[in-house]
Write a structure and sequence with these properties.
Number of strands: 4
Structural class: alpha+beta
Helix content: 40-55%
Strand order of the largest sheet: 1-2
Largest sheet: 2 strands, parallel
Strand content: 5-15%
């Protein structure tokens, strides 16, 4: 799952094992992987900028459904993480299966009592966790894209300003040269009349 193409020669998932497929979220992601002949299992190309719940639910349901059906061993999310307007970093984070947190040995021995059961808690919170992770990835990718667009437009505006300054200076020099030439012609004509 990703919103923007992964550029600069870095492959999103390393080598191409047999069971890796792409869930392309966004037109650019789909086009990127199509050009590279990757197996695109699902396409989600009309994602609104407001990240509506049903759109993200469709992505999560497709990924989780394929994982639970055994069609995927692992689900990773690859996206551009927003750092600042000019910079975004490619992030590849695991979505499924959920890995247990790395804890210290002393904390690992503590047994907690869950009411309701652990399975009931996981059944309620795990879909919300997946939805949040996908929403975060898409929001970060969109923020990164908007930051890149802002930088591109700022650069274009600065370049246009520099070009305007250069052309204005060039035009003013040409106009000044024409005025100087006309003044010289008038003075030369006046001098010629005086010398007669």
């Amino acid at each position: 799952l990703q919103h923007q193409p992964l550029a600069r020669g870095r492959k999103p998932c390393g080598r191409r094992p047999r069971r890796k497929v792409i869930y392309a979220a966004g037109r650019k992601a789909r086009d990127y992987f199509r050009r590279r002949k990757w197996n695109i299992a699902r396409e989600f190309v009309n994602i609104s900028f407001h990240l509506e719940y049903r759109e993200i639910k469709n992505i999560v349901d497709a990924a989780a459904g394929d994982f639970l059906a055994g069609r995927a061993d692992e689900i990773l999310i690859a996206y551009h993480r927003y750092v600042k307007a000019q910079i975004s970093r490619i992030e590849i984070v695991p979505l499924l299966p959920l890995a247990p947190p790395k804890t210290e040995a002393a904390h690992a021995r503590v047994k907690y009592i869950f009411q309701p059961t652990v399975h009931e808690v996981v059944d309620v919170f795990y879909p919300k966790y997946l939805h949040t992770k996908v929403t975060l990835a898409l929001a970060e990718a969109m923020a990164s894209e908007q930051g890149q667009r802002m930088v591109a437009m700022t650069n274009a505006t600065d370049n246009a300003g520099e070009m305007i300054d250069y052309l204005t200076l060039h035009f003013n020099k040409a106009r000044q040269a024409a005025i100087t030439k006309e003044i010289l012609e008038v003075v030369s004509g006046a001098e010629a009349l005086k010398s007669r």
